[in-house]
Amino acid sequence: MFSPNMFREENTDSGDLIQGTLEMLVLKALARGPLHGYAVAEWIHQTSQQLLKVEEGALYPALHRLELRGLLQAQWGASENNRRAKFYQLTAEGKKRLNAESQRWARLSAAVAFVMQAT
Amino acid sequence: MVPGLNDFLLRIKSLLRKKRLDREMAEELDFHQTLMREKLLHQGVPRSEANAAVRKTFGNSARWHERLRELWQFRSVENLTRDVTFSLRLLKKSPGFTIIALLTITLGVGANTAVFSLINSLLLRPLPVPHSDQLVVLGMDQGGPRTQYTFPAPFFRALEKKHELFQQAFASYFRDKLLVRGSSGNENVPGLLVSGDYFTALQTPPLLGRYLTPEDDKPGGSPEGLAAVISEQYWGTRFNRSPNAVGSKLQIANAAFTIVGVMPKRFIGADPTAKPQIFVPLASEPIIDAPSNLIESGYHGWWLVVMGRLQPGVSLDQLNAALKTMSSPILHDTVPEPAWIARAEKEHFHFIAVPGSKGFTYIRFVFEKPLVALFCMCGGILLLACLNLASLLVARAAARERELATRLALGASRRRLIQQLLVESLLVALMGTMLGLAIAPAVSHSLATMLLNRTGSDIYLDTSLDLRMFAFAALIAVVATLLIGLFPALQATSGNLNEQIKEGQHKATTHKRRLLQPSILALEVGLALILVIGAGLLATSMVRLFSSGAGFNPKGVVNIALDMDKQPLEGDALLRVYQQFGETMSHQPGVTTTSFSWIVPLTHTVWDDEHTRPGGVPHDLYLNAVAPDYFKAMSIPMYEGRDFRWTDTPSSGLKMIINQSAAKLFFPDRNPIGQHLLRGDKKIDFEIVGVVGDVKIEDLRTAPPAGGYVPVTQSYIDGGASNKKPSFTMVLRTTGSASPLAGAIRSLAARLTPDIPAPVVTTMDDVVDSSISTERVMALLSVFFAACALLVTGIGLYGTLAYSTARRTSEIGIRMALGAQRATVIALVFRTNAMVALVGAGAGFVAAILGSRALASFLYETSPHDPWVMLSALTSLIVIATAASLLPAIRAARIEPITAIRCE
Q: Taking the model in full, what pTM does it have?
């Protein structure tokens, strides 16, 4: 059973995030280079100004799903403290998907903003 | 890379390296946990709290693995193995349920497959010859309701020449007993008389030597003499597969036939139910049949089965049109009697052709309808078994909801649970189907034996597997599995089960669920009622048929068939031998009366001819030649006049005894004694000397016809027993058993007539029994199926109610704690099933009334709506349903409120 909320938000005021967004965030996290799972979660947490905390229970299934779909490629390598870790890297397919998702997100958030700002 | 393909390859990889995948997952998660713990410690959190936080996040590691693994696996393959193992364990845990489930499915599938294999071999399978679709069967339409399929030789010889229509037309005549001289005396071998083009038309090359040709089909055979072809089987038993068999001589009916060829095993001829071992030319019939001669009897002898292989390009319609126009010319060419032709033409006599790819056998006419009816019954049983199992499985799944809820809580995914439920039903279905298919050959074999083995006949049916059988077996397996799995699947996917799993026992069942299961049960009850009514009708009809009697008392009557064809004595000398037989046998212990008759009633042999009262109109009389004391031996009442005497010789004037029907038909106005009847066109004059009771001749169903008896001492004057070497059957009435008589007659025959084959002893009871064997088997099987249907329905009603009552234990406990009486509880539980049974029975009753007409043709003096049968069927079903529903109800009433509530 997957938990109905894939993210736990530190600040509950910000409301629910749209499902499927996690995958987009993961792709985005990997845009700058290969990272292991923990680093992906950390990066999202930091970059969101501690607003978003990715649940481990959602992160790993998302990573594996993306790998199975061919958007990510996994490789075992040494971590910063010299431990064996599984690093994820965007494939060409993954980069394409990230672009598409970013554009879609921009349009969507703008649209939502218009609506919410209407008087 | 194509995403789908990538996905597929990765999954394949993971399937092959399952261990490594698991290890890597564990490692990846472990790495995460280490970093997380380090970070917390770094932030100054105490070690114990950090460890607790990590555990809280990652919790049950098995569940994590399950979730990730699910992504990677072909769920269908890996989980299936686990589900199968688990389901097997569950089934083993409730052996009662499993055994009943398997037995019912096995019965349904086994019976269906068995009956289908009979239908297949008798009605569907084409002859194993090349281009069997070109074959046609010829018949004659004589204006009657039935087509005549036996031809006189002259008609066939005329048709044989029509090469513009047929590549070959061929005739055959099956003799189940060819008298062949073996190393130790004579033996009877089933043989076939075939016309010249028979083998050419069937296009099967011989295994050895050559087959018979038109050259052989001439009186006296080809210039090299009489030729015969033998089967591979006979080649093995008689000649030990020696190649020298071809060219050796075989003494058949006291004539030497040269074996010219051996036919391979796959060649079965044009009759799928006969298994001839020896093939001889048609023209040798006078030798084989001596002293009778069917060829010589011309258009009076109707004996040949005629088939043809169509010329390419000639359609069946064209053939029929051509046959119609050539019918009249053939009659004029072959029949020397203008009166006969005139009558035939008045009845629009013409030849017809029907498709012959499956060959021709009379057995089809007898068994087609019973087999189809049996098949429907079996289908009903299978449907019932499937429905029953489905409803039990649904009930069981519902009763298991607590277990399912627990498994869900422990991390099983919902989908996996549903899958496991489905696997369980499929497993039962598949195992039952396999068992059913496994027993089918044995069942079909014994069915064939029961249905086909009538006294004195030698019917062979090849029920071996073929492609059609496999297709049917596969179809039935799939249908049964679908039927069984369908309802649990519907249930599972309708979301109700999920709801139940989530809600546990306390949620009231949803409306949809409340409808599905009762409708299955109601359907079951209805179906069972239909089967029971059908069985009741058949059984009632069978009992009435049996008790209707044949007009004689078969009990204690023994028939001894004496075959005098191939011995030297004839005429009066032979009659004296018969008298000696009778005299000697009458001294055997227990024998009270001995006599002889030419025809044994109910054995499908008849002799009839037209008779006229002087100045009256002709009527058909069924005749028999009998010796003195026949009526006494058979216990046929003698109403008037006298019995025959051995002194009623031809010189003392021809005598006849008629039955009551004949007396009423010819002499309604006067005492028939002393009156005269004139037989046939030759107006042979008979004086009536006695009147006896009516006797059924053809079968028990057919009302006794008007009949007449002539004395054996005068029988060879004219008619059926007209030859000089009549073979009579000795009729004995005995107070003992038949077996000691068999030994006595054998030694007597060896002394008096050493040349005849061993006399065949049968009891009249057997004759009567086997004359209704089809009806009996139908009735027995339908009663068996109906009993099974009742049992299965009872189990279904009981089982589902027991499961659903078990789920309500605490509810009932509370009710009782609050003061509900035991009677109220019984009524509460009982009501659930009573409604279902009532609705089902009502629907089934209506369906039975509408459908029972289909059985009408099987019923003897029984209306398809016989109120007693209907009522008793309904009663028996209600009794079973009540018993099945009362048991769980009483058990529920025994619930101790305290225990029930505590067990929550």
A: 0.72
